[in-house]
Amino acid sequence: MHEEPQVPNFDDGKKSPKLQAGMTIAIEPMITMGSPTTRTLPDKWTVVTADGSLSAHFEHTVAITSNGPRILTAA
Predict the structure, then answer these.
(1) Dist. CA 75–CA 73, nearest whole Å
(2) Domain extent listing, the chain
(3) How far apart are the first and last CA of the chain?
(4) What distance in Å separates the CA atoms of residue 12 and residue 73, rounded to the nearest whole number?
(5) Residue 70: in which H helix or E strand, if any?
(6) Could you count the other beta carbons within 10 Å of the beta carbon of residue 25?
(7) Of the residues 3, 18, 50, 61, which has the maximum number of CB atoms within 10 A of its CB?
(8) What is the DSSP string of 20-64?
(9) Burial class (CB in 10 A: 0-12, 13-18, 19+), 7
(10) CA of 34: how far to CAs of 10, 45, 55, in Å?
(11) Is 11 helix (H, G, I), strand (E, B) or coil?
């Protein structure tokens, strides 16, 4: 589930919005064995490491509630 606000998992130099009750965000770190530099393939969706090293992508969806965050994808 992806909806506004889009909160990147890297520093894009922009100020991120303050999280408020009612928002739902996706937290998606990419862990790499080599360089953190990535490139996007021609399909404009697939992201790989620029040096070809192994990597993994994880995702959790978090709802911001009046009682605090709730991880929707927790086991």
Answers:
(1) 6
(2) 1-75
(3) 17
(4) 26
(5) strand 68-71
(6) 21
(7) 61
(8) -TT-EEEE--EEESS-S-EEE-TTSS-EEETT---EEE--EEEEE
(9) middle
(10) 17, 21, 8
(11) coil
Lookup: tokens for 58: 């994880």
In 3D space, the residue among 5, 60, 65, 56 whose CA is nearest the CA of residue 27 turns out to be 60
**What are the structure tokens assigned to 59, written together?**
């995702």
Per-residue confidence in pLDDT tens, the chain, 75 aa: 567 777 776 777 888 788 899 999 888 888 999 998 999 999 998 889 999 999 998 888 999 999 999 999 987
How many CA atoms, within 13 angstroms, populate the side-chain half-sphere of residue 57? Answer: 8
Whole-angstrom distance, CA of residue 1 vs CA of residue 23: 12
Residue 37 · residue 19 · CB < 8 Å: no
For tokens 């192994």, name the residue. Answer: 54
For residue 10, what are its two tokens? 């890297």
